[in-house]
Description:
The structure is a homodimer.
Chain A: E1 8-13, H1 15-18, H2 26-36, E2 41-47, H3 51-64, E3 67-71, H4 82-90, E4 94-96, H5 98-110, E5 124-126, E6 130-132, E7 141-146, E8 149-154, H6 158-177, E9 184-191, H7 195-201, H8 203-206, E10 212-218, E11 221-228, H9 233-248, H10 258-269, E12 273-277, H11 283-288, E13 298-303, H12 307-314, H13 318-324, H14 329-343, E14 347-353, E15 368-375, E16 378-385, H15 390-410
Parallel strand pairs in A: 1-2, 1-3, 3-8, 12-13, 12-14
Antiparallel strand pairs in A: 4-5, 6-7, 7-8, 9-11, 10-11, 14-15, 15-16
Amino acid sequence: MGPDPVLLETISTGDELVRGRSIDTNAPFIAERAARIGVLRFRHTCVGDDPAALAVAFREAAGRADVVIVTGGLGPTEDDCTRRAAADALGAELKFDEAVFAAMGERFRSRGIAMPARNRVQAFFPAGSEILANAPGTAAGFRIEIGGASLFFLSGVPREMEVMFAEHVFPALKKMRGAGYTGAYRAVSTFGESEATVDEILEEIQRRENLSIGLTALLGRIRVTVQTTGPGAADRADAAEAEIRGLLEPFVLEAGTLERSVAALLAKRNLTLATAESCTGGLVGSLLTGVPGISAHYLGGVVSYANSAKVSLLGVPEAMLAEHGAVSGPVARTMAEGVRRALGADLGVSVTGVAGPGGGTAKKPVGTVHFAVAGPDGVRTLYRKLPGDREFVRRFSANIALDLVRRSLRKP
Amino acid sequence: MGPDPVLLETISTGDELVRGRSIDTNAPFIAERAARIGVLRFRHTCVGDDPAALAVAFREAAGRADVVIVTGGLGPTEDDCTRRAAADALGAELKFDEAVFAAMGERFRSRGIAMPARNRVQAFFPAGSEILANAPGTAAGFRIEIGGASLFFLSGVPREMEVMFAEHVFPALKKMRGAGYTGAYRAVSTFGESEATVDEILEEIQRRENLSIGLTALLGRIRVTVQTTGPGAADRADAAEAEIRGLLEPFVLEAGTLERSVAALLAKRNLTLATAESCTGGLVGSLLTGVPGISAHYLGGVVSYANSAKVSLLGVPEAMLAEHGAVSGPVARTMAEGVRRALGADLGVSVTGVAGPGGGTAKKPVGTVHFAVAGPDGVRTLYRKLPGDREFVRRFSANIALDLVRRSLRKP
């Protein structure tokens, strides 16, 4: 077995976070980056701008963890009390650092701005700290040791935090993890089976020793992660990944997400795609165009939200809309064929459904969605009755449409 | 002054959260909703799927808070150990609940699916629990009392958590907050000014006693919140809100978000809109169609990702593309006019830009975006050079396009 794992905790500070006025992206970023090198966070805490509560939280975390990464509260305003709380937790005084203060002044001068007097507080650090430079920002961070644990204090501004993490924390984590570290991490994503079914299929593999399997479900996509440590970790992880891929075929995504999988398959087969969207209103297109480089294979599409747009831009006959309704198999089919023709694409995919909350009927309740994919060999349609509210129906529908394209591209 | 404040803590559970594989939206949602009725969260903790660590976290939180809201770990898989940990924290046994089990069976039957055997664990709850129904999902939650604190256990699936929170937790929080409570909460959203500028404009108002002003910035939208308690809170909050609206005009949004503001203004003026999107790839349409009831005013649009789509569907001349390039004012103008005409809409809006990471040139670097809005009175164009990566440029561009429509609709 390898050395003991490094125990990592994070603490996010700030009233705006703890009171729910803004969302913390720093702590998940840190956890994800650390996990990549096998350092698994086991606890995260968020505390407001209260020096006493912060000092207690710092001491508690130092008692549990090897490394504590604190973000936020280094600004110049009165709320920013992380320095004070860190000094209290350490039982040290705050000391003024001339060099940091001079660098701050230089920074303001170079931008042609006078440094506000209140920024001076940002040059104070707990006595004995190691100062951590903040290249993109004003607020330097610091590192202190409490009872054998290393506490890193970083800026709460995500862009600054990311640079400080990369420069000061990541190398330290790698070093602590030790040369003898042997952990391995793999991930497999699937679409088309429920979480419970995937869990059942992987039941035996989840029971094995020294193999940690995790499942995360989001809008039909199930992400399976594999973690293991000790001698032979990489081989064990590779074997487990291959076994999981085999067990979950044909649901395994080619490239992590549905849109990236579609992009990869379009590139591989050198084909082009166009989209015709009704209830998803552009969501399929926006997912696809989120993938860099997709412009070589995604031509564009039509958002045919009103029936008039289905008629004028996609050639859906008025009579068909009257007979079957806009949410129907024949209309989905004609939309897919129409957009394929209009954009001169190899494949056309369509979605038309009742997302709710209004618009549902006894025959076509909210959640009724029809899909079609049209290609040189004809059209394939799909009907689904989805649970959930408007946003869920729309997002799940976009994923199902992408999966329909993916499956048609996987066929030889 | 009113009664003592209710002390709220949240705990999110799950290896996928603590190890950074997915982002927790539940805890911020709860904090924000509770803050609206004056219940301010003072601490949040995230712990992995470890029954012993969870039981300790539940007991610690019960020792600090009046209300603890726990999300996640109620699923049927082996990872899901919240029930076990809650029973341990309470010092109680897990007891099988016939009624919950019967309801689960009924739910599966109605969808024509056999209930997997392992779902049976979801009918076990700590003895003495109050069961909390989960209308949209399988996993019921529960409420227990430890040392005077109420602990609510909710599903970790956001859609289910939101319904359970509204049904079971929110009324309880209101009750605990007490009849003598006098807090008030208001929010104003703006678009078009930087956070620093808004902060400066509101500098004086932020210094006032018994008025807590918060700012949150997301993709150009700045949300300003006002909180106050004590006698006259509602009047004081109303006055502050009116003052803030006055100070921030004309940047104040009509309805919280840009897409809802556009929808409200379209409805008010009884006009229709069509979209022509290039780099945003359908994002503007998907934001608009996320607003219930928009179908009366948003007709649809064209995602003209490839140049051929700009020519065939929007009537952009090949010569114009050759002379000015796809990312240019003239093309943006022609796209807006073209989509307005193609869909027979009152207004057409367009976006064309370089989202990156590829495609940038010295003259048109990544982040160059052109916009236009066409209406009966002519066309207005807008050029912006945006910072940030592909996703940021795309999302910010979609907001700017919506704001362009909003401003043209606000004109008398």
